[in-house]
Amino acid sequence: MSLWRRIRAMEFWHELLLVGLLAGLLAGAWYFEQARDAEFVSWETQANLSSHMWEMALLTIPLTLIIITGGIDLSVGATMSLSAVTMGLAWRGGVGVWPAVGLALAVGLAAGSLNGAMVVFFRVHPLIITLATMSAYRGVAEGLIGAEPVSGFPAGFEALAEPLVAGVPPAGVLFVVLAAAAWVLLGRTAIGRELRAIGYNETAARFSGVAVARTKLLLYATSGLVAAVAAVLFVARRDTAKADVGAGLELAAITAVVLGGASIFGGRGRILGTVLGVLLLHEVRSLVAWRWNRDELTFIIVGALLILSVLVHSVLTRRKS
């Protein structure tokens, strides 16, 4: 069997491609950083740099499940902003910090449920409704808090950002737990097959007895809840609640999911690919910032990686078909 046929026959070839890109990136960084004692690839540097990625990483888990069903959620960043502002205003108004956290989680759950209700009951396309709520949620957050961010949260709350396991904060540990749970859900349960069935053909899935409406509603509600959790962890790390907490994170999260091999048309996607997409995206952005500190170069490289990943996946999938 030729090498090309072997590649096409492998089930996890996209994940292997991502592992190769990630290994090549780190090897290149190590080679060019030898004069500086390879500081970038050291565990201490990587642990410090990873503190900025976990909130975005959390968003990718429910997004992967939503994209597998053929949907999308552009409002997760704005939901983070609204949840963070709710928490900050409640805290400033005299509510205890943990009840304020509960309010933030409730707001995130309500925001995600509203998205799901509009998609399920009113048949609004997910792209349209989440684009609209992205603008609405962020506008409400900015209107509520204005230009005065809330800070000065108690030390017990800020402990949520302290390293927990091997220098990884609770947000990173939670990401691993959620990724493992989603992996089991997709690969070891009937629910995973139902999610892919919805993405392949929603009408056929409905006639096959799949509870399409309930599943979608739960997915979008979960997405909102996870966004609120990410907002709470972000506030704990930065000790600041403001309206631009989640600005741009929705695009980074979607990029990581698509880079990981999930199809925006639905029916295809793996949690392992998403995790690798998160790591690759983070390492690329960190390395560019570390060596050149140029945002425009980061955008160019990330865009090129995404295009390359999609093109390779499209070519191999078409030839295999």
Helix amount: over 70%
Strand content: under 5%
- The helix-strand sequence is HHHHHHHEHHHHHEHHH
Annotation, overall tally of beta strands: 2
Q: What's the N-to-C terminus distance?
A: 17 Å
Overall pLDDT metric = 89
How are the strands of the biggest sheet laid out side by side? 1-2
Can you summarize the main beta sheet?
2 strands, antiparallel
Q: Count the DSSP helices.
A: 15
Structural class by sheet pairing and helices: mainly alpha
Instruction: Label the overall shape.
Output: globular
Low-confidence spans: pLDDT under 50, at least 5 residues? none
How would you describe this structure to a colleague?
By secondary structure, this protein is mostly helical. It has a domain at 53-270. The chain is built from 15 helices and 2 strands. The protein has helices at residues 3-9, 13-32, 43-50, 54-68, 76-92, 97-121, 126-145, 155-158, 170-188, 190-200, 202-207, 212-238, 249-259, 271-291, 295-320; strands spanning 150-151, 240-241. It has a two-stranded antiparallel sheet. Helix 5 (76-92) runs antiparallel to helix 6. 40% of the residues are buried. The mean pLDDT is 89.
